[in-house]
Design goal:
The chain has 9 helices and 17 strands. With 334 residues, the chain is an alpha+beta fold. It folds into 2 domains: 13-101, Phosphorylase Kinase, domain 1, CATH 3.30.200; 108-329, Transferase(Phosphotransferase) domain 1 (Transferase(Phosphotransferase), domain 1). The strands form 6 sheets. Strands 3-7-8-6-5-4 form a 6-stranded mixed β-sheet, sandwiched between helices. A hairpin with a 5-residue loop joins strand 5 (39-45) and strand 6 (51-57). Helix 4 packs antiparallel against helix 6 (208-224), helix 4 (123-143) runs antiparallel to helix 9 and helix 6 packs antiparallel against helix 8 (265-278). The protein binds adenosine-5'-triphosphate. It is found in: Membrane.
């Protein structure tokens, strides 16, 4: 398959199902890297000895084919240091498979939330990861041949290279928008609890600003080493907790104990400040990714005072929702 991407043509290969089956040792449990709402991921070795990650979409998923084509078409056209690279795909009947470059460090969650590995993420590494994710999103929103809203940003979808360079993965939910299009609506709200902007969960409205919201949550998680949804203290999640600390003028209480005392307080405070600007309730108050990146890279640019953050508790949803796993949220609105 050859798909034009701006001036560059991107080649992705179609593999036979047998090749993929052999590469993954018949999708063996020992090769399984993980799985979520849309499919399972296995490590594989191609006949040319290249290590790959093979994503097999769930067969019975009614959205399978659509999501599959979406991911192939979208990812094949994207080329950036902070986006995972697609190598090929395979289709056999109902089986739909995507083949990606393999990243040996797997995803950010394996480091961030594991007490034995958190220490490997010193502040400099965390700051570099934040910058890389931001550059990846900026490329999607503005610099790539297409304007793309990812809609599925979360630590589990941030893969890490050996040098800890982050790469955004999982484009099953990605949406290509017209360059002048600002907001879209969907009747099928899907994503991960804790990362979805309130207007997306409540009204099905998504835009680049809903990705900005997810970026803000990611930054708070990277700074604190805690998951937004699992961190509940007296009814607070990470976003509301960070906001309260900010208001009480003690934002640094948020910082992960694994890096206690080992960070530049000014830079960390600025990151928390920027994250709170990203998670503001009203999407029009959230700056675009270009402005966010300018804020991150300049120490002199003045930052607005963040307004109250937005968040949404799925249990209060007025319409039927389906949780495919504890955190995976799909909401078909009628
Ligand atoms: N290219 C890759 N290289 C190495 N590991 C990968 C790669 N792609 C995915 N993985 C690992 O497989 C796991 C499962 O991937 P998957 O895309 O199903 O993500 P998920 O976030 O767990 O699920 P979902 O996105 O469907 O909710 C990831 O968390 C990651 O650790």
């Amino acid at each position: 398959m050859k798909i034009a991407a701006g001036v560059t043509a991107v080649r992705i290969r179609k593999y036979s199902f047998e090749t993929i089956k052999t590469a993954t040792d018949t999708f063996s449990e020992s090769n399984k890297l993980g799985g979520g709402g849309f499919g399972e991921v296995f490590k594989g070795v191609l006949p040319d000895k290249r290590e790959v990650a093979v994503k097999m979409l769930f067969r019975r998923s009614t959205q399978g084919e659509k999501e599959f084509k979406n991911e192939v078409v979208v990812v094949a056209r994207l080329q950036h240091k902070n986006l995972v690279r697609i190598i090929g795909f395979s289709v056999k009947g109902d089986e739909k498979i995507l083949v990606y470059e393999f990243l040996p460090n797997k995803s950010l969650n394996f480091f961030l939330f594991d007490p034995t590995k958190q220490g490997q993420l010193d502040w400099t590494t965390r700051y570099t990861i934040i910058g890389g994710i931001g550059r990846g999103i900026l490329y999607l929103h503005q610099d790539s041949p297409l304007k793309i809203i990812h809609r599925y940003l979360k630590v589990d979808n941030i893969l890490l290279e050996n040098d800890m360079n982050p790469k955004i993965a999982d484009f099953v939910m990605a949406k290509i928008c017209g360059m002048d299009q600002t907001t879209e609506n969907t009747s099928r709200v899907a994503g991960t609890e804790g990362y979805m902007a309130p207007e997306y969960m409540e009204l099905g409205q998504f835009s680049v600003k809903s990705d900005v919201y997810s970026f803000g949550v990611l930054v708070l998680e990277i700074v604190s080493g805690r998951r937004n949804k699992s961190f509940l203290s007296s009814g607070l999640n990470l976003v509301t907790y960070a906001w309260r600390l900010w208001r009480d003028k003690s934002p640094l209480d948020l910082v992960d104990r694994a890096i206690a005392g080992n960070y530049p307080s000014g830079e960390v405070t600025r990151c928390i400040h920027i994250a709170l600007i990203c998670v503001q309730k009203d999407p029009t108050d959230r700056p675009d990714m270009w402005t966010i990146m300018s804020m991150l890279t300049s120490n002199t640019m003045s930052l607005p005072v963040p307004k109250q953050p937005g968040y949404f508790i799925p249990n209060t949803t007025p319409y039927q929702s389906t949780l495919r796993s504890s955190s995976h949220f799909i909401n078909d609105r009628t």
